[in-house]
Amino acid sequence: MQAFFHTVDHRTNYRDRQVTSDASLQSDILSCHFFTYEFFLAYVQRAYDAMIKLRGKAWEATGVSIPGVSHFEGLWPFKFTKIQYLAFAQGFYIPEKLLHGPWTKDKASLLYVLVSYNGEIDWEGSMAGEAAKMGMQQAITEGNEHAVAALAVLLGVPKAITNNTLRHAVIHCGCNTNIIRHLLFNAQILAGEASTTLDLYDPALWAWAEVNGYKGEMLKDMLKRADAFDLEFYFEDNADWSKIVSFPYGGSKFDARTAFNDVVRELLMNLYRNYGRKITRRRAATTGQRVIEDDAIDN
What we know:
globular
């Protein structure tokens, strides 16, 4: 509570509140052995109780509810990312212990939540990046979609989803459509900006697709769409979306359920260029007017 909740003045307007969150301290705490998903949910409950107490009885008459632990049921980011009083610091690191398998439900859930709150990988100061690459291979093999969804973002931002990753998922692990969905959706976002290690017309992938019927045709369609930055997250007709793990971002500025257009693509690219930091749009200040920032991650 001291390192997270109490580092933010929850009594003031969101944009004006004082924040003293220490990303380094929070990263150290997250890496501790005791910090499990169960422990995290206990913290959410404690922080919720503190918010109720902070607001006082005057709020009871307003009928405005405060989101709590129940918002994590089902792990839908559009619900639990509304809980802003948890006070994660900008630039906090996800611990290495969560970046590799073997994957349990609770371990993958905690990783998914931390990625949804914009946790980062310490690529330069640790071996976390290599752990994440290994963890992705394990997550694909084990078919853990929450782990794949989270790692696909962490590896997609630095363009670390490679043809080896795709070949492993397609050729060696049966081409699970939901797993491929996360890999290709993330890989396409910054793929066209500069050199990339990903070739969406890789001969090995297309050779597999040629001899694998319907699943092969679906793969070819997904590869073509991703190459054109046209692969929407939800693309199958009459699918049961409750069985598909969401893209781990639930901000109001972008929703994976939204149909692709130029604005949505630009928002996604901005999100990835600035991952872990505030995405801002500044307007030049005139006399008596301060610079205005639009926070596209938290709002």
